[in-house]
UniProtKB/TrEMBL annotation:
<keyword id="KW-0378">Hydrolase</keyword>
<dbReference type="GO" id="GO:0016829">
    <property type="term" value="F:lyase activity"/>
</dbReference>
<dbReference type="InterPro" id="IPR010979">
    <property type="entry name" value="Ribosomal_uS13-like_H2TH"/>
</dbReference>
<dbReference type="Pfam" id="PF06831">
    <property type="entry name" value="H2TH"/>
</dbReference>
<keyword id="KW-0227">DNA damage</keyword>
<dbReference type="GO" id="GO:0008270">
    <property type="term" value="F:zinc ion binding"/>
</dbReference>
<dbReference type="InterPro" id="IPR010663">
    <property type="entry name" value="Znf_FPG/IleRS"/>
</dbReference>
<keyword id="KW-0479">Metal-binding</keyword>
<dbReference type="InterPro" id="IPR012319">
    <property type="entry name" value="FPG_cat"/>
</dbReference>
<comment type="similarity">
    <text>Belongs to the FPG family.</text>
</comment>
<dbReference type="GO" id="GO:0003684">
    <property type="term" value="F:damaged DNA binding"/>
</dbReference>
<keyword id="KW-0511">Multifunctional enzyme</keyword>
<dbReference type="GO" id="GO:0034039">
    <property type="term" value="F:8-oxo-7,8-dihydroguanine DNA N-glycosylase activity"/>
</dbReference>
<dbReference type="GO" id="GO:0006284">
    <property type="term" value="P:base-excision repair"/>
</dbReference>
<protein>
    <submittedName>
        <fullName>Formamidopyrimidine-DNA glycosylase</fullName>
    </submittedName>
</protein>
<keyword id="KW-0456">Lyase</keyword>
<keyword id="KW-0234">DNA repair</keyword>
Length: 300
Protein backbone atom coordinates (compact mmCIF):
# COMPACT_ATOMS: atom_id res chain seq x y z
CA UNK A 1 0.00 0.00 0.00
CA UNK A 2 1.38 3.45 -0.89
CA UNK A 3 2.10 5.38 2.29
CA UNK A 4 3.16 8.93 3.14
CA UNK A 5 6.52 8.91 1.27
CA UNK A 6 5.16 7.40 -1.94
CA UNK A 7 2.06 9.62 -2.02
CA UNK A 8 4.24 12.67 -1.37
CA UNK A 9 6.48 11.60 -4.26
CA UNK A 10 3.49 11.07 -6.58
CA UNK A 11 2.21 14.54 -5.70
CA UNK A 12 5.66 16.03 -6.37
CA UNK A 13 5.81 14.25 -9.73
CA UNK A 14 2.40 15.59 -10.71
CA UNK A 15 3.46 19.10 -9.66
CA UNK A 16 6.45 18.81 -11.96
CA UNK A 17 4.78 17.11 -14.91
CA UNK A 18 1.06 17.88 -14.89
CA UNK A 19 0.42 21.14 -13.04
CA UNK A 20 -0.20 23.95 -15.50
CA UNK A 21 -1.87 21.76 -18.09
CA UNK A 22 -5.56 21.79 -18.87
CA UNK A 23 -7.70 18.70 -18.47
CA UNK A 24 -9.11 17.34 -21.70
CA UNK A 25 -11.34 14.82 -19.94
CA UNK A 26 -11.61 12.44 -17.00
CA UNK A 27 -12.68 8.95 -18.04
CA UNK A 28 -14.15 6.47 -15.59
CA UNK A 29 -13.77 2.77 -16.35
CA UNK A 30 -14.58 1.37 -12.91
CA UNK A 31 -17.72 3.13 -11.72
CA UNK A 32 -17.33 1.64 -8.26
CA UNK A 33 -14.00 3.50 -7.87
CA UNK A 34 -15.58 6.96 -8.17
CA UNK A 35 -17.48 7.43 -4.93
CA UNK A 36 -19.13 10.76 -5.76
CA UNK A 37 -21.57 11.90 -8.43
CA UNK A 38 -21.90 15.65 -7.79
CA UNK A 39 -19.99 17.29 -9.38
CA UNK A 40 -19.82 14.80 -12.26
CA UNK A 41 -16.54 13.58 -13.75
CA UNK A 42 -17.18 15.83 -16.76
CA UNK A 43 -16.85 18.90 -14.51
CA UNK A 44 -13.04 18.83 -14.69
CA UNK A 45 -12.94 19.05 -18.50
CA UNK A 46 -11.44 22.37 -19.57
CA UNK A 47 -10.11 23.16 -16.10
CA UNK A 48 -6.42 23.81 -15.43
CA UNK A 49 -4.74 21.30 -13.17
CA UNK A 50 -3.34 23.69 -10.59
CA UNK A 51 -2.12 21.71 -7.58
CA UNK A 52 -1.07 18.31 -6.29
CA UNK A 53 -0.65 17.46 -2.63
CA UNK A 54 -1.71 14.93 -0.05
CA UNK A 55 -3.65 14.41 3.17
CA UNK A 56 -1.94 11.52 4.95
CA UNK A 57 -2.12 8.70 2.40
CA UNK A 58 -4.75 10.47 0.26
CA UNK A 59 -3.56 12.10 -2.98
CA UNK A 60 -5.16 15.50 -3.68
CA UNK A 61 -5.21 16.77 -7.28
CA UNK A 62 -6.63 20.28 -7.61
CA UNK A 63 -8.36 22.06 -10.49
CA UNK A 64 -9.40 25.68 -10.83
CA UNK A 65 -12.28 27.06 -12.88
CA UNK A 66 -11.44 27.03 -16.60
CA UNK A 67 -12.96 29.20 -19.29
CA UNK A 68 -13.74 26.14 -21.38
CA UNK A 69 -15.29 24.16 -18.59
CA UNK A 70 -18.81 25.25 -19.37
CA UNK A 71 -19.62 25.59 -15.67
CA UNK A 72 -20.50 29.08 -14.41
CA UNK A 73 -18.03 30.26 -11.76
CA UNK A 74 -19.15 30.70 -8.19
CA UNK A 75 -17.67 33.09 -5.70
CA UNK A 76 -14.91 31.93 -3.38
CA UNK A 77 -12.98 28.64 -3.10
CA UNK A 78 -16.00 26.58 -4.18
CA UNK A 79 -14.85 27.28 -7.76
CA UNK A 80 -12.02 24.80 -7.19
CA UNK A 81 -12.41 21.06 -7.53
CA UNK A 82 -10.32 18.30 -5.98
CA UNK A 83 -9.84 14.73 -7.11
CA UNK A 84 -9.02 12.92 -3.87
CA UNK A 85 -7.60 9.44 -4.35
CA UNK A 86 -6.90 6.66 -1.88
CA UNK A 87 -4.85 4.03 -3.69
CA UNK A 88 -5.61 1.32 -1.09
CA UNK A 89 -3.53 -1.84 -1.10
CA UNK A 90 -3.10 -2.50 -4.82
CA UNK A 91 -3.72 0.86 -6.48
CA UNK A 92 -1.17 2.94 -8.34
CA UNK A 93 -0.76 5.98 -10.59
CA UNK A 94 0.83 5.43 -14.00
CA UNK A 95 1.83 8.56 -15.91
CA UNK A 96 1.69 8.39 -19.70
CA UNK A 97 3.53 10.80 -22.00
CA UNK A 98 1.13 9.70 -24.70
CA UNK A 99 -1.81 7.31 -24.89
CA UNK A 100 -1.96 4.61 -27.55
CA UNK A 101 -5.52 5.43 -28.51
CA UNK A 102 -7.66 8.59 -28.32
CA UNK A 103 -10.76 6.44 -27.87
CA UNK A 104 -12.46 6.72 -24.48
CA UNK A 105 -12.05 3.89 -22.01
CA UNK A 106 -14.68 1.19 -22.05
CA UNK A 107 -16.28 0.18 -18.73
CA UNK A 108 -14.25 -2.52 -17.03
CA UNK A 109 -11.03 -1.83 -18.97
CA UNK A 110 -8.84 -4.28 -17.08
CA UNK A 111 -6.98 -2.80 -14.13
CA UNK A 112 -7.64 0.83 -15.14
CA UNK A 113 -10.14 2.56 -12.87
CA UNK A 114 -9.83 6.16 -14.08
CA UNK A 115 -7.89 7.95 -16.81
CA UNK A 116 -7.11 11.67 -16.98
CA UNK A 117 -6.10 13.12 -20.33
CA UNK A 118 -4.34 16.49 -20.50
CA UNK A 119 -4.08 19.04 -23.28
CA UNK A 120 -0.53 18.06 -24.31
CA UNK A 121 -1.50 14.44 -24.97
CA UNK A 122 -0.12 13.18 -21.67
CA UNK A 123 -2.02 12.12 -18.57
CA UNK A 124 -2.27 9.32 -16.09
CA UNK A 125 -4.13 6.14 -15.27
CA UNK A 126 -5.25 5.14 -11.81
CA UNK A 127 -5.03 1.36 -11.75
CA UNK A 128 -5.72 -1.43 -9.30
CA UNK A 129 -4.38 -4.97 -9.49
CA UNK A 130 -6.17 -8.05 -8.21
CA UNK A 131 -9.81 -8.88 -7.71
CA UNK A 132 -10.39 -7.04 -4.44
CA UNK A 133 -11.21 -3.50 -5.59
CA UNK A 134 -10.63 -0.92 -2.87
CA UNK A 135 -9.21 2.06 -4.77
CA UNK A 136 -11.42 5.07 -4.06
CA UNK A 137 -11.66 8.41 -5.85
CA UNK A 138 -13.78 11.41 -4.85
CA UNK A 139 -14.42 14.52 -6.94
CA UNK A 140 -15.29 17.22 -4.41
CA UNK A 141 -15.20 20.97 -3.86
CA UNK A 142 -13.58 20.62 -0.44
CA UNK A 143 -11.28 17.74 0.64
CA UNK A 144 -13.05 17.71 4.01
CA UNK A 145 -16.10 16.29 2.21
CA UNK A 146 -14.20 12.98 1.99
CA UNK A 147 -14.94 11.02 5.20
CA UNK A 148 -11.46 9.51 5.39
CA UNK A 149 -9.82 12.92 5.09
CA UNK A 150 -12.06 14.63 7.62
CA UNK A 151 -11.19 12.01 10.25
CA UNK A 152 -7.41 12.20 9.83
CA UNK A 153 -5.17 12.99 12.74
CA UNK A 154 -2.19 15.33 12.35
CA UNK A 155 0.32 14.48 9.66
CA UNK A 156 3.16 12.27 10.86
CA UNK A 157 5.74 14.74 9.56
CA UNK A 158 4.03 17.79 11.05
CA UNK A 159 3.30 16.58 14.59
CA UNK A 160 5.49 17.79 17.47
CA UNK A 161 7.12 15.42 19.95
CA UNK A 162 4.70 16.41 22.72
CA UNK A 163 1.65 16.06 20.48
CA UNK A 164 2.96 12.71 19.23
CA UNK A 165 3.27 11.39 22.79
CA UNK A 166 -0.18 12.66 23.73
CA UNK A 167 -1.85 11.10 20.70
CA UNK A 168 -0.14 7.73 21.15
CA UNK A 169 -1.22 7.68 24.78
CA UNK A 170 -4.78 8.59 23.77
CA UNK A 171 -5.28 5.03 22.47
CA UNK A 172 -4.90 1.92 24.59
CA UNK A 173 -3.52 -0.96 22.60
CA UNK A 174 -0.50 -2.47 20.91
CA UNK A 175 1.80 0.18 19.47
CA UNK A 176 1.77 -1.30 15.95
CA UNK A 177 -1.98 -0.82 15.65
CA UNK A 178 -2.01 2.62 17.26
CA UNK A 179 0.85 3.86 15.08
CA UNK A 180 -1.09 2.92 11.94
CA UNK A 181 -4.42 4.34 13.12
CA UNK A 182 -5.02 7.23 10.71
CA UNK A 183 -7.16 9.06 13.25
CA UNK A 184 -4.16 9.14 15.59
CA UNK A 185 -1.49 10.02 13.02
CA UNK A 186 -1.93 10.45 9.27
CA UNK A 187 0.33 8.75 6.77
CA UNK A 188 1.92 5.74 8.50
CA UNK A 189 0.94 2.30 7.25
CA UNK A 190 1.98 -1.31 7.68
CA UNK A 191 5.36 -1.08 5.96
CA UNK A 192 6.85 2.02 7.53
CA UNK A 193 5.47 1.17 10.98
CA UNK A 194 7.58 -2.01 10.82
CA UNK A 195 10.60 0.12 9.94
CA UNK A 196 9.91 2.71 12.65
CA UNK A 197 9.50 0.10 15.37
CA UNK A 198 12.68 -1.64 14.25
CA UNK A 199 14.62 1.64 14.36
CA UNK A 200 13.18 2.36 17.82
CA UNK A 201 14.07 -1.19 19.00
CA UNK A 202 10.49 -1.68 20.16
CA UNK A 203 8.20 -4.69 20.02
CA UNK A 204 5.19 -4.22 17.73
CA UNK A 205 3.05 -5.59 20.56
CA UNK A 206 4.29 -3.19 23.25
CA UNK A 207 1.31 -1.64 25.03
CA UNK A 208 0.94 2.12 24.66
CA UNK A 209 -0.13 2.51 28.28
CA UNK A 210 3.19 1.09 29.48
CA UNK A 211 5.51 3.19 27.32
CA UNK A 212 7.82 5.55 29.18
CA UNK A 213 8.52 9.14 28.18
CA UNK A 214 11.94 8.04 26.98
CA UNK A 215 10.49 5.28 24.82
CA UNK A 216 7.98 7.67 23.27
CA UNK A 217 10.73 10.17 22.51
CA UNK A 218 12.82 7.41 20.89
CA UNK A 219 9.80 6.30 18.86
CA UNK A 220 9.12 9.87 17.73
CA UNK A 221 12.72 10.35 16.61
CA UNK A 222 12.65 7.02 14.76
CA UNK A 223 9.44 8.04 12.99
CA UNK A 224 10.96 11.36 11.91
CA UNK A 225 14.13 9.72 10.61
CA UNK A 226 12.42 6.85 8.77
CA UNK A 227 9.70 8.97 7.15
CA UNK A 228 11.98 11.91 6.27
CA UNK A 229 14.58 9.61 4.74
CA UNK A 230 11.92 7.75 2.74
CA UNK A 231 10.49 11.02 1.40
CA UNK A 232 13.99 12.20 0.42
CA UNK A 233 14.62 8.94 -1.45
CA UNK A 234 11.20 8.93 -3.12
CA UNK A 235 10.67 12.52 -4.24
CA UNK A 236 12.24 13.03 -7.64
CA UNK A 237 11.67 9.44 -8.72
CA UNK A 238 9.32 8.70 -11.58
CA UNK A 239 6.05 7.08 -10.58
CA UNK A 240 7.12 3.81 -12.21
CA UNK A 241 10.27 3.64 -10.04
CA UNK A 242 8.74 4.34 -6.64
CA UNK A 243 7.78 0.80 -5.69
CA UNK A 244 11.30 -0.47 -6.31
CA UNK A 245 12.77 2.42 -4.33
CA UNK A 246 10.47 1.64 -1.42
CA UNK A 247 11.45 -2.05 -1.35
CA UNK A 248 15.15 -1.24 -1.58
CA UNK A 249 15.01 0.99 1.50
CA UNK A 250 13.36 -1.53 3.83
CA UNK A 251 15.32 -3.16 6.65
CA UNK A 252 12.73 -5.59 8.01
CA UNK A 253 9.42 -5.11 6.21
CA UNK A 254 8.84 -7.80 3.55
CA UNK A 255 12.26 -9.30 4.39
CA UNK A 256 11.16 -12.43 6.26
CA UNK A 257 13.99 -14.96 6.46
CA UNK A 258 16.70 -12.48 5.51
CA UNK A 259 19.36 -11.21 7.91
CA UNK A 260 18.67 -8.05 9.88
CA UNK A 261 21.07 -5.39 8.51
CA UNK A 262 21.70 -4.13 12.06
CA UNK A 263 22.47 -7.31 14.03
CA UNK A 264 22.44 -10.14 11.49
CA UNK A 265 19.63 -12.09 13.17
CA UNK A 266 16.89 -13.55 10.96
CA UNK A 267 13.96 -11.26 10.24
CA UNK A 268 10.76 -12.92 11.50
CA UNK A 269 7.08 -12.54 10.63
CA UNK A 270 3.73 -12.56 12.39
CA UNK A 271 0.84 -13.31 10.03
CA UNK A 272 -2.76 -12.23 10.43
CA UNK A 273 -5.85 -12.87 8.32
CA UNK A 274 -5.17 -10.19 5.72
CA UNK A 275 -1.69 -8.85 6.46
CA UNK A 276 1.56 -9.53 8.23
CA UNK A 277 4.28 -7.70 10.09
CA UNK A 278 8.03 -8.23 10.16
CA UNK A 279 10.48 -7.62 12.99
CA UNK A 280 13.89 -8.56 14.35
CA UNK A 281 13.68 -10.46 17.64
CA UNK A 282 17.23 -9.60 18.67
CA UNK A 283 16.75 -5.87 18.06
CA UNK A 284 13.15 -5.52 19.25
CA UNK A 285 12.03 -8.25 21.66
CA UNK A 286 15.13 -9.27 23.61
CA UNK A 287 15.65 -12.26 21.34
CA UNK A 288 12.21 -13.75 22.06
CA UNK A 289 10.15 -14.67 18.97
CA UNK A 290 6.59 -13.38 18.94
CA UNK A 291 3.80 -15.94 18.71
CA UNK A 292 2.65 -16.21 15.11
CA UNK A 293 -1.02 -16.81 15.89
CA UNK A 294 -3.61 -14.12 16.34
CA UNK A 295 -5.20 -15.75 19.37
CA UNK A 296 -1.95 -16.81 21.04
CA UNK A 297 -0.61 -15.20 24.15
CA UNK A 298 1.70 -12.59 22.70
CA UNK A 299 5.15 -11.84 24.06
CA UNK A 300 5.58 -8.18 24.88
Amino acid sequence: MPELPEVEALAAYLRERAVGHTVERLEVSSFSALKTYDPPASAVAGRPLTAAGRHGKFLDIGFSTGVASGFPPREGPADDLHLIVHLARAGWLHYRDTFKSPAPLKPGSGPIALRMRLDDGSGFDLTEAGTQKSLAAYLVRDPAEVPGVSRLGPDALAVTADEFAARIRSRNGQIKGVLTDQEVLAGIGNAYSDEILHAAKMSPFALTGKLTDEQLHTLYEAMRVIETDAVARSVGQKAAELKGEKRAGMRVHARTGLPCPVCGDTVREVSFADKSLQYCAKCQTGGKPLADRRLSKLIR
